[in-house]
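Q: Joint fold for the lines below.
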Amino acid sequence: MNRLTVSPSPHVHSGDSVKKNMYGVIIALVPALAASLYYFGLGAAIVTITAVVSCVFFEWAIQKYLLKNDSTIMDGSAALTGLLLAFNMPSNLPIWIIIIGSLVAIGIGKMSFGGLGNNPFNPALVGRVFLLISFPVQMTLWPKPIVSQAHYLDAETGATPLSVMKEGLANGETVSTMMSKIPSYTELFFGNSGGSAGEIAAAALLIGLIFMLIRKIITWHIPVAIIGSIAVFTGILHLVNPEVYAGPLFHLLTGGVMLGAIFMATDYVSSPMANKGMIIYGIGIGVITVVIRVFGAYPEGVSFAILIMNGFVPLIDKYVKPKRFGEVVKTAKA
Amino acid sequence: MNVVLITIISLGVLGSLAAIILYFVAQKFKVFEDPRIDQVEEVLPAANCGGCGYPGCRAFAEAMVKSDDISDLNCPVGGADTMSAAAAILGKEVAAADPMVAVVRCNGTCENRPRITEYDGATSCTIATSLYGGDTGCSNGCLGLGECVDACAFNAMYMDEETGLPVIIEDNCVSCGACVDACPKNIIELRKKGPKSRRIFVSCVNTDKGAAAKKACSVACIACKKCQKICPFDAITVENNLAYIDYNKCKLCRKCVAECPTNAIHMINFPPPKPKVEKPVAESAE
Amino acid sequence: MLKTFSLGGVHPAENKFSAGQKIEVLPVPEQVSVPIAQHIGAPSEPVVAKGDEVKVGQLIAKSTGFVSANIHSPVSGKVFKIDDIIDASGYKRKAIIIKTEGDEWDESIDRSEDLITEVTASPEEIIKKVGEAGIVGLGGATFPAHVKLSVPPGKTCEVLILNGVECEPYLTADHQLMMEKGDEIMVGTQILMKALKVEKAIIGIENNKPDAIKHMSELAGKYPGITIQPLKVQYPQGGEKQLIDACIGRQIPSGKLPIEVGAVVQNVGTTLAVYEAVQKNKPLFERVVTVTGKSVSKPSNFLARVGTPLNQLIDAAGGLPEDTGKVIGGGPMMGKALSSTEVPITKGSSGILIMPDEMAKRGKTEACIRCSKCVSVCPMGLSPYLLMTVSDKAIWDRAEEEKIMDCIECGSCSFTCPANRPLLDYIRLGKGKVGQIMRSRTK
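A: Joint structure:
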């Protein structure tokens, strides 16, 4: 007979694992990846492959030569960071910039804090924002969808709906005239517009959300809080003056709202633990996003909003506790 | 020019005013602190290990200054030198405390004490202890999960991979007692370091009856009382199926070491065995 | 929507292999070892000495306080010795070892199968009887039953809740009891209701036992005041606090007892023991034990005497499988892994679960990825990830602030953690320390 194993209870496990969750998110990103390959073709493929490979490589290299601990590249978290980073970049970005972005994302965004589980900020967004500030020109040249399918660096570029709107309003145009210059809502929903490689197709991203909710990888709180607060906030502004402020649907379907709300803000490590905290965090992201988009200098603000709220997570976790058993219901009759 | 002058003057006046207010406030709310506390703290080792029983060296210094009789107080890290230096500052008497060292009283190596179950929980001796007696037949012995090593702040312990037992690096041990508190099985004891670091102790804490103890571990104390009978100094007591050597009474004669049938009594730092010559009195005179 | 408790919970694979297996009476063992500490509270004091002749049901160790319990001889024969043996706690503790001779029962015990429905005893007599019979919570917690029945002055009990949930995977002892001893349980319920002076009793049964729900509902028609409450399958529904929440929607405040919300909970097995004690004068010395596991050739429910060594039950269930890696006393979520198969079963042994080697080991512990799954499954609304960290770092005041003492040790957090972190191991450690600190403060 074998020697008996003695361990504290529980003696069974759900079978869930870090790997399953990470690969689950990657699977949830497949529809969005398909959409980006369809609209941006060659460029999207090069950007995605470069980002994923370089993120995994940097994680491996840093763990092997600097931290000298066990490699965690197989858990899928580095590949996921690479994929999300690629989705946040235009599809005509030169390879060397992507590699720098990956190094910042993994090296500074993740490994400098001690690796998976310890990073206060979403690593992919750290990489993305670093690139946006360092290479503002390259990071805001957006290839046109479909026509640039067979192109990479030489893709024909145009503006995103958000920058079209922002510029137009700055020049004194009204929302209704600008709306005619951007793709229709249906086109925006299916992703036929300019933008980062993975953020354009709201439909594909929503399929990913449904998959993750069914597999219980994430809960509804963060995406719903972000989308809801953006809808409410922009809706109020739109009602106040529809010619100066674009409507909620425009804000939800353009830019990185869907990608951010579903995949970036829900990053386990950099989001709050309690459900109530998640909702506060989501509302914070929604409000900051709208403030940056409507009143700020940048046409887009999802990345900044998420990073800012990432910074508040320790505070939220400290003060927002889960609902405790026996705390609220007090129906005892003496 | 005028602007510069006005600025300088007004700022200067403001500064002086603030300085005067601060001075009076500082005088009014001055907290008197015995300057000797600082002096005593100066001679303490600043290890802040808590080995003296006070939270940090400053608290210990305060205690030394405040109490009239400091014979109960001892800084194990600094030892006699530090204590006499501190006592000199205060003009108080200090009893010379013998230097102590931590001793692991278990020799249940993988060879001596076969494993009969496998522990598969969090790497923590306390957690394993709350679960069961341990992965061997001995429910008193070392679990080998290294909580003592984690507790040691002086790099004086390590786990021997081969035996699965902690080892004390005597030169580094300051006898702060952190490992003693950390061990949930009370295996580690602070014992007198002894002349030339020589000491004799029972390396076992098993309280089972002889046969059960022997079955669990080949080097267990079986409470046969042979050591107790042979000891010329009444230093050995057998209680609860376990022999214990009082280090204050032991004269290091080594008779018990030879007598122990299970080699549970260990001697440390004695010269390699010479042909049998036993001079207990000469040993203790050193 | 079926009722269940309001916060958290998990649904482990049920694996009720022994469901539907008739309760088999295990032959009386040749020798029994009866530990004197097999309940919560003070260990009992032996009242027999080596060489004494004892009969089945004779008192062999008496309770040593209010929270303590009498122990009766499970066999007839001679006291062989009183010695330290390794029991389910994993430590050597005192036990009374009796060599069996024949099977002679104490004359006062009514051994007939007849159902006695008429309850003649007064509430005080019932509580006294339950205390004398050494009845403890048979769900596994082993809390002395008479203590729960003694409602403290100033409080009133409004409802009796019976636990027929059996939320632990694998175990089927209570399920089978309800199927075979339904009537006795109903009378037992009437007795408990009388003792507590309540008009209402609810028997909570999880929906994975439709036959038991049907059977008990049919019986309940014959007895006034008893209703059957089917519940959604959700672990840890059998926890006292969770069961009250599920059945009557009241939550016990932190650090309080069920009586605070006017409820008393008893297990169905305990209720049967109460019936036997009050109506048949039979003290608690045998119980139903499930022996089960993936590789066990004959998963069964046995009626076994307290003190029977585990391996006798395992042999009766087809022997210890070749690939055994772990033997657990109780269910897989809260049961205790045993270091030997020679330990005796006690009043609290609801099952013996034999795990094959490949299921015995835990997965590799990885870094916390803050997925918050432990928070969402915690039935007490705690933050297990945080409690583990503060316990590991010995920050006891913070642990107390975060209500570590509310933890019911159900193991949902460790069960769920994708990084295989030993959350409950550390929380238990922290609970122990914080409990110590709190007790020393009140002194």
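Q: Anything notable?
A: Residues 240 and 348 of chain C are 16 Å apart (CA to CA). The domain at 1-9+17-25+110-361 of chain C is CATH 3.40.50.11540 (Rossmann fold).
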